[in-house]
Amino acid sequence: MKELYTIGETAALMGITTRTLRYYNSMGLISPSYTDPDTGYRYYSFKQFHYIDRIKYLQSFGLSLESIKEVILSGSVETLLSHLNEQREKQRRAIEESEKILRDIEWYIEYFTYGASGRPPEEFYRIHLEERYILNTPCFAGEPVDEKAVRLAALKSRKQEERLAYRRQYGFLMDFDAMLEGRFLEAGYFVYLREKPAVLSPGIRSLPAGEYLCFRSRIFLDDIDTHRIRDYIREPPPHTLVIANEYEDNLKEYERAEYEIQILL
């Protein structure tokens, strides 16, 4: 068996580049076993191969070269386990974050497909909804939608330190009595939160779980059929919460967006 291997032979056998081996040497991670004083050629011994292999393996776990250097130079299993445990926790957190992003992507797909489900506006239907959480700003009579949107954006900006996670669905809290009179009167403008926040700070409120009577409407364009609503609601419900959830069917004209009106029964 050969005692020494050139840097090129070592790189080829270990599946890395000569540049990588030189970099390992420059940072003191692993140095050539022998350097020819006349030619400057670098040689590695067979015994060093397992060090290089371990370096590659630990890199595949995401460990930094500085951490690997500490492990290699210490020669200690305890040091290795300490870094492995730390990296395991980092990977767990990364997986949790990736799973959240995946759920958000799936939710956004559902948002557009649910909105395009094609329920006719004259259809009334009931759905059960779990408790939800929103970031809400009050609305004022006569103000345009863009002023509400700017105020909500400013509120979101002020809430950054709370690390709230949003789902990009906007909506209105509607005045129940005004709706029965045939008017859409906004009481609040909101965006949904992904999950229950740690603290219900100002601007955050919950939408209760329960049975909701629903219908579809383009609230900026359509009239309200108050007679049909009254046919379904013979007596005013104990709650007068009315939610209008926006469902976009294009990415340009929000005025034409369809809303699902949800009346808590």
UniProtKB/TrEMBL annotation:
InterPro entries: DNA-bd_dom_put_sf, MerR-type_HTH_dom, MerR_fam. Pfam families: MerR_1 (PF13411). Keywords: DNA-binding, Repressor, Transcription, Transcription regulation. Transmembrane segments: none annotated. Residues 4-74 form the HTH merR-type domain. PROSITE patterns: HTH_MERR_2. The keyword tRNA processing does not apply. The keyword Repressor applies. One of its GO terms (molecular function) is DNA-binding transcription factor activity. This is MerR family transcriptional regulator. It comes from Anaerotruncus massiliensis (ex Liu et al. 2021).
